[in-house]
Design a protein that fits this description.
heterodimer, A: 705 residues, alpha+beta, Alpha-Beta Plaits, two-stranded antiparallel ribbon, 30 helices, 13 strands, 58% helix, elongated, B: 260 residues, outer membrane lipoprotein receptor (LolB), chain A, 4 helices, 16% helix, 45% strand
Amino acid sequence: MIGHWVVLVQIAFRNLFSSFINLVIGVIIAVGTMLVVVGGAMLDSLDTAMSRSITGSLAGHIQVYSAASKDELAIYGGMTDDPSLAAVDDFPKVKRLLLGVPHVKTVVPMGINGALLMSGNTVDLTLAKLRGAVKARDAATASGAPAADLAEQVDSQKAHIRQIVKVLVEDAAKASVLADSHAVDDEAKQALATVSTEPFWEGFDRDPYSALELLENKIAPLVSDADMLYVRYVGTDLDAYQRAFDRMQVVDGQPVPAGRRGFLFPKFQYEEQLKLKTARRLDRIKEGLTESGKTIAGDSELQRFVRENQAQTREIVLQLDGLKTRTALARLNAALHSNETDLPTLLTRLFTTDDQNFMDRYRIFYEQLAPLLELYRVRIGDMLTVKAFTRSGYVQSVNVKVYGTFEFKGLEKSPLSGVTGLMDLMSFRDLYGYLSADKRDELRVLQAASGAKAVARENAEAELFGGGGPVVAEAKEGSIDEKAQLSGLKKAKKSEDLVARIYTPGEIEDGVVLNAAVVLDDPKALPQAIKAISELSAKEHLGLKVESWQQASGLLGEFVLAAKGILYFAVTIIFVVAVVVINNAMMMATLQRTQTLGTMRAIGAQRSFIVSMVLLETLVLGLLFGSAGAAAGAAVMAKLHATGIGAWSDAVYFFFSGPRIYPSLGAGNVVAAFLIILVVSVVSTLYPALIAMRVSPVTAMQAEE
Amino acid sequence: MRSTFLLTALVAGPLFLAAPAEAALSPDELKKLIETIDERQRSTGDYKALCYIEQKEKDKNDIVRELVVYRRDADQKLMFLFTKPKSEEGKGYLRIDKNLWSYDPNVGKWERATERERIGGTNSRRSDFDESRLAIEYDASYEGEEKLGAFTVHRLVLSAKAGIDVAYPVVKLWVDTSTGNILKRQELALSGRLMRTAYYPKWNKLFSDSKKSDIWFPAEIRIYDEVEKSNSTLVLMKSVDLHSLEANLFTKAWLEAKSR
């Protein structure tokens, strides 16, 4: 029997280079193996990179949340609104028990919510600052504290408002010239005339609040409203989070100090939505020119940015007070070698850019003009007012300090992950508005006292008007004392006290938590850990739903799955093509050898011998050329690992989890490639082997010489 | 001849009964009706009302609030001060000219709101608590007379006048023919989509010394959301006080002081 196989192996090696077709097949196998080695290694590297981006940024390896939740968890957001989740019962207990599960390294409490950023137009914001400065000055004066600095602040804000009024008066005059009757009505013109006079400003400090109300109600509405900004955020124990998630990195500012309330903006959103639009457009043009190889002359989008910057100078003009306006004129005239006295005209000239002058104008903007401007609607260190509809239906607002911006390594340019901010858990709970038992009781008492009776929509008309009784009644005048209505218990929470307060880990963890990220010490232990946590939840009646990061990641998780699906599909196509090509080549090789095979059959070779011979020949081919292909693939991977591959678009940036990927080759990739290529070779040879087996000696002898 | 008359009376009689003659209002009568609705609710002096709002939503906790509404119709000034529950105390709205401001003492900030602002997160609007300005804000047309339960009502359609900012551009009214009170009101978006249906089953009147006549106010408004069909809102005017208000009441400083 062994002799039989020795003969077959000898034949296989002897025939290796006997036919040109064998060489062709060998090359196909070699190229195929190389592709499988490189493709498999790339696929693994991409998968590892994407998975690490997600598990290391927000999701952790496993997410747990209440099984009583109405919706599925979607950490990075789903197709619709953020899901409605029930609170996890007793998070400290859940955390304690989960930390006892093998491979569980950390458990981080979380909650996801969305809110609107309170904001007004530039005039509203400046007037709010002026009102705040006046109040602070008056309070200091009343308490006998030094108020000189505060008085200076009031004067500075007043000067800014006067400059804004001047700009609006000029606008109104232009509108009159253009006969634009809708631009400013007579009442507004009269108000503008009033606030433009010296007596108005001389008398401002005698009755600042009346003056402010006139400015707020008559002047500020002349400027269009600012965009509302929606912010999605994850409320979490920021200290535990920053320790557990290594992909998060602070870009501007600093991390939120341990135990403090605070907010970190996602860098992507901070740049895209909070930056002065003109500055952002300049950045986009620069990116287009330097990173994407575009030109202003040849790209319609860059041309649009230039046009918008030329036309939309008002936001900049309104930001500058009188002194800054004069400084801006002087600086820009010097840089542009002009002698212009009208700032909007000068700004339009600055923003009239082409491929030749752009970089120079960009530099002038950032060096000369930007220091005079508020480049962002919210600055690092500002107190941010966040307003959310709570789960109990009430609108709740909190002030939270912005400590900085952050990004997730590898997801910097992903709009899905780049719009989720990070907030401390205490502020999150205030905005989430969980209805405690006390609050619920208070509402019940109010409802009972009202005597209100529910009337169903379907019966409303019959129930309310069916009887035909009198609709009108005489009322007795009441005496309403709002002081008696107000409980007097509640005083406005001082936001500065809350900002300064340091919360203990116990306070942070003991409260509403909607979901928790479980980080493992070994990602490969994911299936066992999910099983163990599910069993623990059932045993301890924790009522938890346990999901892998991919399930819990919502759209982003689905995107990764789809991306992997596409990559696997591409590899499958390559194999199908290889099977067809090898199959055809083997068919040709077999048909060429009909006479030889017939002769062998005639001198006593069994059919099984013929089949074994053909298959073994392919196996030897596969081993030899496969090795060569694997070696070539390994060499390619070594080169790619050393040099890396740069991302050429934002989508590729996501796949690469960064600007450059350095793929690596594992032993598993080589072994898998070998196995796959051998199986493919054998499968492709089965049909030709069957043909060879059926060759009869008579047919072979009848064939022409 | 007599039998023919009887036959005619038998056949045609029910038809006449089924379709009573449409007592179409003339344009002058229509204008007068709308002006009367406004005039009845107008207060020449100051006005203060203690209100209760309750909103029911499917699968959610009820929203319950109490607030004091302050009006000085002569200056078109309006202010709300929320008094209950405790978490809402001190919050409020202030309307000056065309500006509607909302205030939250928790953050000490004022924010601009629009006519479409959902008062305190409920389906009530500023106009549900303010004086009636139908004649100023809308052009009315008459649609006919019909039955609403046991009441005979005029059905009117009102369209917002150009350049006037209102919460809803089209409003349908069902007005009691005998007392001239609005019993039902439907509000539509510009697209024609029905947004809210409100019923006014109880009207109260109170004699005002400054007006030298009664001031009318809806003691109960039941609002049914036509977009989120399971949501409904109840507004009760529990008490009205016509004493003069402080001169500086309609200011930001006054509302801020309430929570200090």
